[in-house]
Amino acid sequence: MTDIHTHTLYGLDDGSESFEMSLKMLSMASKGGTKNIILTPHCNIPGGYLNYMNSTIAGRFEKLKDAAKEFVPDINLYLGMEVYASNDIPELIRRGMAITLNRSRYLLVEFNFEESPLYVFKVLQNIQKAGIVPVLAHPERYAFVQQEPYIVHDLIRAGIIIQINRGSILGKFGSQPKAAADYLLKHSMVHIVASDGHRSYSRAPILYDAYAEVEKHYGKEYADMLFKKNPQNILLDKDPAFLKVKLRHGKEF
Ligand SMILES: [Fe+2]
After folding, report:
1. pLDDT (tens digit, 9 = 90+) per residue, 168-180?
2. Domain interval for residue 197
């Protein structure tokens, strides 16, 4: 499996607290069957974490990658960021302050949970105009999606990649995100499931339990698409055509 959304790089945000915890998290992910993992620290949360690309981030990534080669050899590490929605995202990318997922065309973007759908569409379109493909992080956690989950269909038609969280599928964020995640899964409105793993002791960076849940309810082909094929395509910067959501009725959109 490939996990495109984790807070496994230490000391930057509300994710891993230390180098040792990062190694432990990588070990947990590897034991759970994750072969590739993208480290996506929060980049620009207003009044919160500011992690614009710099030598500290690059240095910690290289240090962790070297250690993982020795202690967790079955997992491959890649770098990305989780970028908070703002109108200056194209500028942040152009200046190298924010980076895409493994330097591909795909950018992981998050919003305030109470954001309006109009603003979400506007910000995502602005990113697309700059030639970047937005990957929308955990829409099932946003109020407007919980109220009107079918709106995600419009996002997909507009070319947005939809990533939901392992924890939502397992009911770890409560009933509303779980109901929204179930709706999106049932109606084939999900491209990718990621862990959004934060720490070794909470919101673990693992996928196998959510994979089992999706496989049980929707079958192996669908689970493989969401946990393996589509995230792998992101990692390899493959054409979005490979990311088509396959409707259960045999149609695609
Ligand atoms: Fe996240």
Report:
1. 999 999 999 999 9
2. 2-243
